[in-house]
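WARN retry 2 of 3 for item q-0093 after timeout on previous attempt; input resubmitted unchanged.
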Amino acid sequence: MSFNTSIKAFVKVIEAHSNVISAEDWVELASLTSNLPEDEEEVEEVLENWLKTGSRSQVLQAYKQELGVIVANSALNLDEDLGVGGSKSPTNPNQPSLPAKELIENAIKRNSPLSDNKKTN
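OK item q-0093 returned
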């Protein structure tokens, strides 16, 4: 499994399962992203360690579920250049994709209830 798959699964959890992330965990995630390394393998390790600590069993379960879906879909669509949920990649084939750190930061900014509070203040 590629590191990119793990990152996609984590982003999908943030986007589609934000309700299982507690307010305290949103604060930790926001703090975590400011310290994420640039290397995708290291990012994956940090995220998986975060998922395994504290009372994040629902978040971990959602992550494993999304990971399974992504792996199953990628195995079924080896000849197609499709993203998560069958979507086309927003990145042109000749351009590099966003770094893992940036993908996670953007997902948190778009989905965190803390971000909504900042917008209304």
